[in-house]
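USER: I would love a firmer grasp of how sequence relates to backbone shape in proteins. This is the protein in question:
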Amino acid sequence: MTFVCGDIGGTRARFAFAGAEVGPVVEFASADFPGPEALVRAWLAGSVVRPTAACLALAGPVREGRCVATNLPWVVEGDSLSASLGFPVVLVNDFHAAALGARALGPAGCEAVVEGAARADAPVAVLGAGTGLGEAVVVGDVVLPGEGGHAEFGPGSTREVRLAGWLIDRFGRASWESVLSGPGLVNLARFSWAERGVAAPDWVEAPDAPARVAEAEPAVLAWFAELYGAEAGNLALRVLAGSVYLAGGIAPRMLPLLRSGVFERRFREKGKVGAALAGVPVFLAAHPALGLLGARAELTRRGW
């Protein structure tokens, strides 16, 4: 049997055929297509392979086989896709797939960010900053995807209180995704420039603005790493996780900074309950096909 595995984010869409293993990955720009059906057809064009089934991991909540994409103007119906493509299509949240992929890799297949000993009898927490901020939890064989990135941002300092006010004035609310994502990194820079009375550079509206901020504003990037640690610790506390995995496209580019201590300090600084995170490790799940591994694992879970 041959399966279609897809990991479709707000920026990039990755596809691979999978049998016992996930095959070579082909990548597209998500926004270049009107929806997942067009993406799948573009990828299958010219192929002689007849897929048995597909699992598509989408950046948005999935309920009863239906997904409203968070950062793309798409509404996706699994039953309609199945009928149109001619084979069963399973839809899952992208961090549902990332969580399964991280669990499949395990500590041995990942880079350590914060040292510790993973507890196999405790939940696994997965979060990742990229175009947005995704979060999920694995408890035994059950995956609990969520939209925690859109929960209200919690300041940890007076400067972050001012940041929250600035975000509310600008966007109507302050969420964790508004600081922990590519656009979030730009928001941190804009706030920092405003506090210093410095005009934002012309390139701030460019698509590569997050990368340029990372290069030009090391203090802002260090703050981003702190906030990443804070929310990773929040998620770990909410479920008393035995291990935490970082996914998404940003963490692999800043691994030395994440290991420098700023991430760990905010991860573990949780007041009188900070001891609950003592010894909890954090890993970077940087496998280039993480979501595709998870999509394949989901098909296995469903008996394919």
